[in-house]
């Protein structure tokens, strides 16, 4: 379980996150939606222990988040993460050496699934292949928490489809808590259980995806648009 | 885990190291060809000394290449290894590159001396190979390179810690310089205190040198008087630089943000 208690992150006078109170329950898949600059990546980095709150605290399974949280959190970063000079195999070996929960068996399966060639230098991979490699590295971990920050960034629709199938096949539903930030709502909707709209560092709305569909007959994208329209009108 | 970090850092620097070693060889062979062409083989030695003294900055450069590789996204901070292991891995691999390059330079110097000594291009006492002087040169270069490498790590960590303060972003370089100058000036001032000088002189070791010599970097100074070398400054210097390294690791763990 991930808890954010009154979390604020300030850069000078600018608030990237403003008094966020959120709980992400164990075994559920969450989507964090919102425009650029809404604080999605800041929230993910904070849960990954890469940023520290100016105010409030972030807890994962009751433990205050710091740099050591990486042992319980598998984090897919929107930038960086892979070293251009290393091959796919060397990246996999490096991750296996750093995270005790890294499953080589799962990694081998994912190599086949993601259609990656292990001898290739990561610098020579296309953007789509790099995206798939990042996902492979994160999904090969059997960590209680998965944080996927913009997993579809710069990927074409075919690759996005592979990524979603990868998520469905390799996430341990019910056990792993998964948070995904994305603009590609339609693609990710089938995987989500709950969605949160973040805007200007604040939680604008929250919904249960299934209830939304069954009770209000709305997709997450429609709900997002409606919420924004209401926000503008009010 | 630490082995994995070492392997990754080695892979990150491997190509740069190969290019550097090829450059050293190319420079040496050009210098040797020039010296042979002039019929004055001693002309190769200024080039060898240039390569030797470049080693003082080679270690910090190698270290910065490794740190630069992490700067995009700083994913290395999302790690089960703490700051000490992360930075130690970088320092050790940069040091490995430095040692490999220093050994190659030693070999080139030895080959050149083997050629130059019998032909009378170089004078040494009793026409012997200057092994002891070579070892001292290697030790001096290693000490100097480590000094700059540890300071480099510390100042790099301070620089990136200041990321969290946007108002200081434009004056970060100035602050880094100010911190370095302040610590050096403070160290030099402390070393001038008679009580400290007396304390330093209280523990010496004879190394057989008859002359009086003094050398140092920044605020640190070591001296040999009548063959006696003061040990306290050496010990304190080692402790100080270890503390600097630990401070860099602490900053990396607690203050450097992405």
From TrEMBL, chain A:
UniProt name for this protein: ATP-binding cassette domain-containing protein
Lineage top rank: taxon: Bacteria
Pfam families: ABC_tran
Chain segments annotated as transmembrane: none
Keywords: ATP-binding, Nucleotide-binding
Record's keyword annotation contains Nucleotide-binding: yes
Gene Ontology terms, MF aspect: ATP binding; ATP hydrolysis activity
Keyword ATP-binding: yes
Domain ABC transporter, first and last residues per copy: 2-225
Annotated InterPro entries: AAA+_ATPase, ABC_transporter-like_ATP-bd, P-loop_NTPase
SUPFAM superfamilies: P-loop containing nucleoside triphosphate hydrolases (SSF52540)
Automatic annotation (TrEMBL), chain B:
Keyword Membrane attributed: yes
Domain of life: Bacteria
Keyword entries, A-Z: Membrane, Transmembrane, Transmembrane helix
Ranges annotated as spanning the membrane: 12-37, 43-66, 87-115, 135-159, 171-196, 231-252
Record's protein name: Uncharacterized protein
Classification of source organism: Bacteria, Bacillati, Bacillota, Bacilli, Bacillales
